[in-house]
Structure formats: C-alpha cells, structure tokens
Design goal:
By secondary structure, the protein is α+β, with helices and mostly antiparallel strands. The chain has 3 domains: about 120 residues, Copper amine oxidase-like, N-terminal domain (Copper Amine Oxidase, Chain A, domain 1), CATH 3.30.457; about 210 residues, Cathepsin B, Chain A, CATH 3.90.70; about 160 residues, Sandwich (Jelly Rolls), CATH 2.60.120. It contains 8 helices and 35 strands. Strands 14, 15, 16, 17, 18, 19, 20, 21, 22, 23, 26, 29 and 35 form a 13-stranded mixed sheet that branches. The chain has a 6-stranded antiparallel sheet with strand order 28-27-30-25-32-33. Strand 6 and strand 7 form a beta hairpin.
Length: about 575
C-alpha cells in the first residue's frame, strides 16, 4: 500500500508536467494509463491541480482587461475550466449576461442568445441544446460561468499558461457585437411607465427608473421618487426641479433609495426615519454624445439616464404620430428621461424635421402612458442634447455590505480642485463610533482612465501624520463616476479613534482631478463645512486644510464593519 501511494504521487507529478505543456484552457486530460498498478483518473488529479492553481495568484486577461482571484471573481474549477463572474464576462468579452428566475443565466451577443441553467450541464444556443462539462453556478452571491464552452459562440480564443498561472481570452469578433435594434422591454429589463404629474421631479424619476432597470430581471423593485426629491441634502422643493448630480449625491450617501410603498408619490409629504433598501456603491458617467458607449451601457447594465431639451408643444420638434423627437437647436437641457434601447433603422423621414441619417434612441418618459407610444418615444441620434449627462448604475448592493459609512459630502460632487496638473493627494479624517474594521473607500473619478492609490492612517495626529498611511488599494477606472474600492487588507481601529483615508488620484488631461462638495456664495446647496476635516496636497508631503483654504469638503467616504 505504501509503494502504491508513492506510485500515485509520482503519476500525479508526471501528469502535472504533461499538463504544463497544454496551451488550451479547460482541456480535459484522458485517463492516465495504469502505472505499476495505480490507475489515476482525471476526477482525482484535476481537483488537485485546480486547488494548486487557486491557492496562488491566478490571473485572467480578457482582451485588455485583467482580473485576479484576489478580487474573488475568477477561479479554476475542479474540471479545469476557467470560471468568471458575469460582471467580468460582460466587461471583458463584450456581451450581456443576466440572471432570470434565479435559475438561468441568459447571455446575449449580437444575434447569439445563450441560456445556461444554473447547475446543469446543458445550455441552449439560439434554441439548440448543447452539452457542457462545467455548469454555471452561484457562489458567494455571484454568478460564475465557464469560459471553455462559451468561446465558440461568443467569438474568442482561450489559452492557459501554467507557469504564470494565467488564462488569456482574446476576442475574434469582427465588427460590433451590438444588434441593429434593441429594446430592454423585450427582455423583461424595464419597469412600467411612471407619471411625475405637474411637479419638477423628472430628474428623480429618471434616476430611479434607471436604478430599477439595472436590477432587472433579478430584483423587481420600485423606489420612492417622493423620498429622493424631498429627503435629499438640497434646499430646492419638488416644483423647482433638479438634476442628475442630486440623485447621485442622495444615493451614494445612503440617504436612499427607499421603497415606494413606504413613501408613495404625490401626497406632498415624506415620513421621517425611512432607511434605504439598497446601498448604491457604483455609478458610471458615460462620455457625452458617445452613441456606441450609450448602447453598450444599455445592453449590459440597463436603462441609462440622460438629459435633453424638450418642447413637445412645438410641432417642429415632436412628431406625434410616430412618437418621434428631434431638436437641433442650442437651448440647454431642461428634462431628464431614460434610454431603454435603440433602432438604427428608424427612418429620418419619420421625424418632424428630418435629420441627416436614420437611427434613434428609444426613450421612456415620466409623463404617463398618454404621452408618445404608451410613454415611450424615439429621439434621433442627431438631437442636440440626447446622450448628454448620461449615467448608469453598476453597483447596487445589500444594506448589509457595510455597517457604517463615514462622509462629509452629502451634497456630492459640486466642483473640482487641483493644482493645475493631473494628480493630487486628498484626505478625510473621521472618528470611529465603536471598535470597527475600515474596509473600503468611496470616491469620484472625474474623468476617464483615472488611476488611484488608497492609504489608511489608523491614528491620525495632525496633517504631518498623513505621510504615514498604509497602502490598502490601487487601480484604475476606465470611466468617470463614483466608485467603491474594497481594501486588500482591512484595518481594525478602536472606538473613538481618529483615522484618515488618503487618496492619490491621477486623471489624464485634468487640471482639477478631485471632486469636492463646494459651497458657492450664491448657491442653494446646504453644504455643511463643519461636519468633516479634509486635507489636500500636491505631493503627499505638504498638506492644507480644504475647508479653511478652499471652502469645500472632499468627496471621499470610508466604509466600516463592526467588530463582533
């Protein structure tokens, strides 16, 4: 028996050496020939190989995007197939992936439709049944899918390098992966049309409609526009209107969203003490007028909030019979709606005044179903304003994700600071309410391709101590927006401790890369400069107090968990 174990170990070693030479990820080895009485099967050694791979740093590169098992969204399965979360799949391989009925992943790319039942070794590709070796699964609250069976239908090559513990997928798709027309309603990813009545709450309805759409079909839910428009940190009332930045500030500060049933719309009141039902941890801002990027966001994430100048009483802009709108003037935006799809073939001759080319965004309004085609209308790609101020919601989490948020920027991103260069350092100081673990930070990237480093000073002792922070995270963000970054190492602090979170940020082409809550002399913002302690620095060595010298709070939040 002892010799047999030695032979088995030697056999496994030989198999590992052989496996080293394979370049195709997920390739399953045949049964090993009997070696001196020991017959080693793949169901024995494959899990051992997978365990070895997962115990080290594992990297998966999908086109130009790099992911590791440190972020808990890639791993090697026991059948030696690279498993990635659906978030990674969408971002890295240009497709849409959503969970339906809690038991089936549906993946879209161009004319290809894939249905993957959770836990089953079969899938449907454009209605045709196929067998697979590794099923989709839900693990640690995330949906994971195998790359090996998807490479044929999602148009990518796949390889594995054992020496570097790295998998690489490269798209072979030629042209766009997006269809010529797409409508979220066809995929149960759009909520019912709402009616703002005669109040100036379009911004709140657009924000929450986009948020609700981003959670479909997995989590059908309705949020309160009354609460967003009445219980924010701004002094304007419902009749005065608002804009998308107000919605961002309300959501990222955890003032909401609140369930509609707890604060129904239109009664002129909003109860005290209501708690958010979700925590919004990420919002992406899209490049203005970038049609391809807007389509990509709708396809992957759901409805996109946008702004336009809308004058439905002027027939030169709105064509009622076709529910079509095209404004080519210079008026500033005055209305928010959501983009729910597009039609590249929507004829230019179907507008009151013909644009140069065909094509329109499908938009949902908040004026009830009597407007347009049941509340929906078409806006030409060439409209002067459609596609401006676009945001999508990409990080909605349970309220149990963190126990506490520390912040001093309830009015959110109102201005920007900088030293006339692309980078600077910023810090916020907070005092713990109990013994806690500092787990993450939240901040705004004010432009595309922003890189960042995050540090924590567990015992803040004046501005000079900000030089002594522990590095806890670094990375880059492709798009502007609000992001939450979880720390690689969490830091435990005692009750009553004054700690600091330090951000080094770099935004290419920027001269003022830092988002701040700014108190303008003629502004209606209810900015409280006494609720925080913020510092800025050009180099991380010389610091100045932002409230005293710049009349602002830094938009930099900290998230903690209680020590149980």
């Amino acid at each position: 028996m002892r010799n047999q174990k030695k032979y088995i170990a030697l056999g496994i070693l030989l198999v590992l050496v052989a496996l080293w030479k394979f370049q195709s990820a997920g390739e399953i080895l045949e049964d090993v020939e009997e070696f001196r009485g020991a017959n080693i099967k793949e169901d024995v050694f494959s899990p051992m190989i997978a365990q070895s791979i997962n115990s080290k740093l594992m990297t998966v590169t999908l086109n130009d995007q790099r992911y590791t098992n440190e972020s808990d969204n890639v791993y090697m399965s026991n059948d030696l197939d690279i498993m990635v979360s659906t978030d990674v799949l969408m971002e890295g391989l240009r497709c849409s992936a959503r969970l339906y009925n809690e038991n089936e992943v549906r993946i879209l790319q161009g004319d290809t439709s894939i249905k993957m039942p959770i836990g089953e070794k079969k899938i449907l590709v454009n209605g045709e049944r196929k067998k697979i070796k590794e099923p989709a699964i839900i693990k640690r609250g995330r949906i994971f899918v195998p790359l090996q069976p998807l490479k044929e239908w999602l148009n990518f090559s796949l390889s594995w390098d054992m020496e570097s513990n790295t998998g690489t997928a490269i798209s072979t798709l030629k042209g766009t992966y997006l269809p010529a027309n797409f409508d979220l309603r066809d995929y149960d990813r759009m909520v019912a049309v709402k009616d703002q009545g005669n109040l100036g709450t379009c911004w709140a309805f657009a924000s929450l409609t986009a948020l609700e759409s981003s959670m479909l079909p997995e989590q059908p839910i309705s949020f309160s526009a009354d609460h967003m428009s009445m219980r924010n940190s701004f002094s304007s009332d419902q009749a005065e209107g608002g804009e998308y930045t107000m919605g961002m500030a309300y959501l990222t500060s955890w003032q909401g969203p609140v369930l509609e049933e707890l604060d129904p719309y239109g009664d002129g009141k909003s109860p005290n003490g209501l708690k958010p039902s979700r925590h919004v941890q990420e919002i992406q801002l899209l490049e203005n007028k970038n049609i391809q990027e807007i389509k990509d966001a709708v396809y992957k994430y759901g409805a996109v909030q946008t702004s336009l100048f809308f004058a439905p009483k002027y027939p030169m802009y709105y064509q009622e019979d076709n529910a079509s709108y095209f404004y080519n003037g210079t008026q500033a935006v005055n209305h928010d709606v959501v983009i729910i799809g597009w039609d590249d073939n929507f004829g230019a001759d179907r507008f009151a005044v013909s644009p140069r080319s065909d094509g329109a965004f499908i938009c949902q309004n908040s004026w009830g179903t009597d407007f347009g085609d049941g509340g929906v209308f078409y806006v030409s790609y060439e409209d002067s304003n459609i596609g401006s101020q676009c945001i999508c919601y990409t990080g909605i989490e349970s309220v149990k994700n963190f126990d506490r948020i520390y912040q001093s920027d309830l009015c959110g991103w109102g201005g920007q600071l900088g030293y006339n260069k692309e980078s600077l350092y910023a810090a916020n100081v907070f005092t713990t309410e109990e013994e806690e673990v500092i787990s993450a930070a939240g901040f705004y990237a004010t432009g595309n391709d922003t890189t960042y480093e995050l540090f924590v000073v567990p015992k803040f002792d004046g501005a000079s101590s900000l030089r002594e922070g522990w590095k806890v995270a670094e990375g880059n963000k492709k798009r502007a927006g609000f992001y939450t970054v979880r720390f690689q190492s969490q830091i435990r602090v005692a009750k009553g401790s004054r700690f600091a979170v330090v951000l080094k940020i770099n935004t290419p082409g920027a001269t003022r890369p830092l988002a701040v809550e700014y108190k303008k002399p003629d502004s209606e913002l209810e900015v409280d400069l006494s609720d925080g302690e913020s510092y800025i620095s050009p180099n991380g060595r010389r610091w100045q107090n932002a409230e005293k010298t710049q009349n602002c709070n830094i938009c930099l939040k900290a998230y903690t968990q209680k020590v149980h």
